[in-house]
Specification:
heterodimer; A: 167 residues; rod-shaped; B: 248 residues; two-stranded antiparallel ribbon; 6 helices; 2 strands
Chain lengths: 167, 248
């Protein structure tokens, strides 16, 4: 078997090795770089899509949160408004009730006063009559004689005067 | 004892007798180069089998790491405008590394043949020159030889030609030295072994017992380290020269 020189340039080997190098470049590009680049690119796209999706979801959530907060604030405002209105109404109502009660009380008092006054007059008149009668009886019993009409009348009148002073 | 380091064997010859190229000799270098290419390609196919976007296998992680390492290496040395060079540099590195390491299997390294490194270095040289012409024009490229003063033109031409020659010879010399030293060690160990075990009967003293183990330790440097370093240096110089050519 022939053996080539140890340190030499063999033209055919040289040419073959140049071809081999470029074939190897093609093979390594075709079987390593192309599939790996594709899968990395795919993964990049997937990651981008996921990030975009997450951002959209985040935006949506933010919008919803703002919406909720707005609604909550509105609800709070209307609730306090309702409470305020209720308070005002309650105050008005209570005032009206008190006023009515006062009016009623005043009317009652007035009526009572009138009744009392009327009763007083009535009682006074009755008393006057009764006192007159009693005085007449007493006088008749005490004196046991007929008094002149004139004395009689004077006596009664004095009596009434005294009673009137008492009242 | 006689010890000899020979060039690549020639399996058969096709008598073409083309001028300059001569007869085609199918040598060990060409055969083992094809084995190397087959190994690299099958490895690539195996690594990129069943690729997934998420929940990747360890194999895919390794494949992605290799691609990323090659990309980072080229971008680190050349910037991002040379991304189309990534597969070339990766192929150069892989071919060089596997060629250097295939001697561990007892095959003759294709890189222990100067023709191989010369072929690679000439390809790189053409790329460097092409890049120089691309960035400075033919005029700018030729004018570059007369800087800083015209008298230096011959030296500039020499230094330009020295680039591929030094690249080829550096790689070849390192690998060949490994082959020579390995051959010397095996021969020396065989002699030492037969001297040491001379007392064994029935020709058993001819078995080179010392050749088991000792060369493995030395091959850590001469095959693994040197093989890796030369592949790395060759690719490093390739990227550096081309990047420099683009800057001028």
């Amino acid at each position: 078997m022939n053996v080539q020189e140890l340190v030499t340039l063999v033209p055919w080997t040289f040419v073959a090795q140049i071809c081999n190098l470029f074939i190897q470049v093609y093979l390594i590009r075709r079987f390593l770089f192309k599939p790996i680049s594709e899968v990395i690119e795919k993964r990049r796209q997937l990651a981008n899509a996921q990030i975009t999706e997450a951002e959209a979801a985040n935006r949506e959530a933010q919008a919803m949160k703002a919406d909720y907060e707005k609604n909550l604030a509105e609800a709070n405002a209307s609730a306090s408004e309702i409470i305020q209105a209720a308070k005002r109404q309650a105050v008005l109502q209570s005032e009206a009730i008190v006023k009515e009660a006062q009016t009623q009380a005043a009317a009652l008092k007035q009526k009572a006063d009138a009744d009392i006054a009327q009763e007083k007059v009535k009682v006074f008149n009755q008393m006057k009559d009764e006192i007159g009668d009693i005085a007449m009886d007493i006088a008749a019993k005490v004196i046991e004689r007929e008094i002149s009409e004139k004395d009689h009348q004077k006596l009664i009148n004095d009596m009434i005067e005294n009673v009137g002073d008492l009242t | 004892m006689d010890f000899e380091v020979s060039g690549p064997k020639v399996f058969f010859t096709i008598p073409l007798d083309i001028p300059f190229l001569g007869d085609f000799e199918f040598s060990e270098t060409i055969l083992v180069s094809w084995i190397v290419m087959a190994v690299i390609t099958l490895l690539c196919i195996w690594l990129t089998r069943d690729l997934r976007v998420e929940n990747i296998s360890k194999r895919q992680a390794v494949a992605e790491m290799l691609v990323e390492t090659a990309t980072n290496f080229v971008r680190g040395n050349m910037g991002t405008k040379f991304d189309r060079m990534i597969p070339f540099v990766a192929a150069l590195f892989a071919t060089s590394l596997v060629s250097n390491l295939i001697s561990l299997l007892g095959l003759r390294s294709p890189t222990a043949d100067l023709s191989t490194e010369a072929a690679w270095a000439v390809v790189v040289f053409v790329m460097i020159t092409g890049q120089k012409i691309k960035s400075g024009g033919v005029g700018g490229y030729l004018k570059g030889f007369t800087t800083p003063i015209p008298i230096l033109t011959p030296f500039n031409i020499l230094s330009e030609l020295a680039t591929p020659i030094s690249m080829a010879c550096r790689h070849f010399g390192n690998i060949l030295s490994g082959v020579v030293i390995n051959g010397l060690i095996y021969a020396a160990l065989a002699v030492a072994s037969s001297a040491l075990f001379r007392f064994l009967p029935w020709g058993l003293e001819q078995i080179p017992f010392l050749s088991v183990g000792v060369p493995a330790i030395l091959s850590v440097y001469f095959d693994w380290f040197s093989g890796f370093m030369q592949a790395f240096i060759f690719c490093m110089l390739t990227t550096m020269y081309i990047a420099n050519a683009a800057e001028d």
